Amino acid sequence: MRELVYLSDRKLEQFLPALRSLWPRPKVNLKTPVLEIGVEPTPDAERSRLKQLARVIAHIERTARWYDDPAAVAGHWVHFEAPLNYLVLDGGPVPGMTLFVDRATQPGSTRLILHCSSNHLRIEGRAQAVAPPAGHTVETADSGGSGAGAITNNIDLLIGLLSAQPSASDGHVVAPNHYAGRHLPGATIDLLRTIDGRTHPETAAWMAGYARVTANFVVGTTRYVIASPLYIEYAPPPRP
Predict the structure, then answer these.
(1) pLDDT digits (tens, 9 = 90+) for 87-113
(2) How far apart are CA 117 and CA 143, in angstroms?
(3) From CA 240, how far away is CA 82, in angstroms rounded?
(4) Closest CA to 141 of 124, 118, 157
(5) Coil, strand or helix at 132
(6) Cβ atoms 40, 27 nearer than 8 A
(7) Are the C-beta atoms of 79 and 61 separated by less than 8 Å?
(8) Max Cα separation, the chain?
(9) What is the pLDDT of residue 106?
(10) Which single residue of 46, 51, 201, 233 has CA 20 to 30 Å from 179?
(11) DSSP assignment letter at 63
């Protein structure tokens, strides 16, 4: 039995563009002259979607690389298994963005950052939610597209949101900074430094899945992999 944490309907639809109009939606509204009826997805529709996920995974895994493979450049599919914490980001121009982030284990290791929408989380409860301070705004360009500039703007925004939160250790609020003009590696390192100060290794759960790479680069001896997941599931930790 597999326990899903996250599933992206949009990515599933990319594999069947001709059938998008037939794809089961989370909810549809049926209007009549006298009433409007909300219809929830049926068990059969949910089973159909999970069967499609299995077919897509079978297709992806034929070419997917391990997530820390240097050859896994932007656009490639990768498989990952790692202990991950996650945070839901509230407020700002991209409300509801969720980050799944691993922890640094040793020099020369790989850091994994998964970015996705909280609308597709499939677990009960919510992770730590963070929001910008009252009266503070963070300027950002349009986040659409896949260029490095758009990703940098998103990360700059997330740094601003997270920097406004109290540290997990001392509760001190640090005023957010603007990161205009920062390049992607520097912004990513700052983002992870902020997240590491607000999450705990003890709360990271082993998870696995497949994701499409957004960026893959090395700074010093550490590799940083930023990716957008198709799905994430709980996974058993490796045996000692």
Answers:
(1) 887 655 456 688 999 987 777 789 999
(2) 13
(3) 15
(4) 157
(5) coil
(6) yes
(7) yes
(8) 66
(9) 76
(10) 201
(11) T
> Is 204 in contact with 85 (CB distance < 8 Å)?
yes
Would you tell me how many other CB atoms lie within 10 Å of the CB of residue 149? 12
Q: How many CA atoms does the CB half-sphere of 239 hold within 13 Å?
A: 0
- For residue range 28-69, what is the model confidence (pLDDT) as tens digits? 444 444 444 444 456 677 777 778 888 888 889 999 999 999
Q: What single DSSP character describes residue 4?
A: E
Inter-residue contact 118 to 98 (CB < 8 Å): yes
Residue type, position 187, single letter: A
**Nearest C-alpha neighbor of 205 from the set 232, 174, 166:** 232
User: What does the buried/exposed string (b/e) look like for 170-180 if buried means 16 or more CB atoms within 10 Å of the residue's CB?
Assistant: eeeeeebeebe
- Has this prediction a pTM greater than 0.85? no
Rounded Cα gap, residues 68 and 212, in angstroms: 13
Q: Residue 197 carries which DSSP code? A: T
Q: Which phi and psi (to 5°) does residue 48 adopt?
A: -65, -40
With a CB cutoff of 8 Å and minimum separation 6, the contacts of 85 are 100, 101, 102, 103, 127, 195, 199, 200, 203, 204
Whose tokens are 């996650």? That residue is 86
Residue with tokens 């996250």: 6
Q: Which of 10, 196, 3, 7 is nearest to 87 (CA)?
A: 196
Distance, in Å, from the CA atom of 129 to the CA atom of 199, rounded to the nearest integer, reads 12
